[in-house]
Amino acid sequence: MAISPTTEGFRAAFRRPSLTLAEISWRWVTGATAAALIVFGLVEYLDTLPVTNGELLLLRSRQPYLVGEAIAHILRGSLNRAVIAGMLAALLLASLWIIAASLGRIATVRGLLDYFRRHVAGKVFAGGTAKDGDGEGYVVNNVCSNEGSLRALARLNFLRVAAALAAILGFIGASILASFASPDANPRPGAAFFIFLTLASLVFFVWSALNWLLSLSGIFAVRDGEDALAAIISAVTLCRERGRAVSAVGAWIGLAHMVAFVGATILVSMPLGLVALVSWRLAIVITILGTLAYFALADWLYTARMAGYVCIIEMPEVLVSSLRTQSAPPSRGTGADSVPQLQTSIDRNEPILSDLPNLVAET
Fold first, then answer.
1. Which of 153, 136, 157, 135 is nearest to 144 (CA)?
2. How confident is the model at residue 117 (pLDDT cuts 50, 70, 90)?
3. pTM of the model
């Protein structure tokens, strides 16, 4: 019985909501920590800025030039401390994300492996609907220890952070190269924008592909206990051997994600457009709730996509054997090694091939 990895991915996300909750937990905890650190750091930094009476006078003038000069004078001499503090905060947040993402990936992937080995395997072997306990004897690999998986996932996530940093530097480099096309003596903003857009799109494509490959490699790190390099090789091998199935899962989940993003954008923009008719507090509450709902739905879709990938990894032999069993023609001869004999020559005695007229009518 052939199965659809995309359908099984959505079914696993529906039947195992605890996996989505686990994914939401570590993502939202990391995001809330980052947001709190940014807000409190900004507030503390603004409290340390000295403001003189002359600067207050310039700020109250409401003249853009004077206000800009006052802000520049206030920030002069203290911006270096803010940059150093921001770099330190980014380093700590990256370390927190690496640890949280590694632990969360171990919990999620192990839950998916247990689901597919207990339920989907039983459905494939039985040829019908899986029930609780089906496929309990079907075990492909024993899940390896936490220590080896955590070490490999930490290295993979470190590479993802490094790739993100390289992408940021790539965007900065794209802006610098684009500025060369529009010098002050001969400004050409259209050409500069086109060059920046092209280079930025290339950087984004390379980063997204590399980030996706490293994320997929994490499944092999948990499933087989491989190190980072071996997990990457396994992910590349999967894409080469079963690229059509992997692309199908990514395409369908990506389409669902796009629909969810468009719907969330409409839901969030409606109260902001009606802020003159409704209370601004109500508009802010609706905006925040709509944003959180979109984030939760995005995490659920990510869990469904990862479940589809786990289904492809866990079921390749079952899928191939079932298709071969259904489509293999009867063989001639006896023995287990007999293969069907195909006729490759032309039968010259066939009447339709004769060069004599009316031979078919006479026979």
1. 153
2. confident
3. 0.74
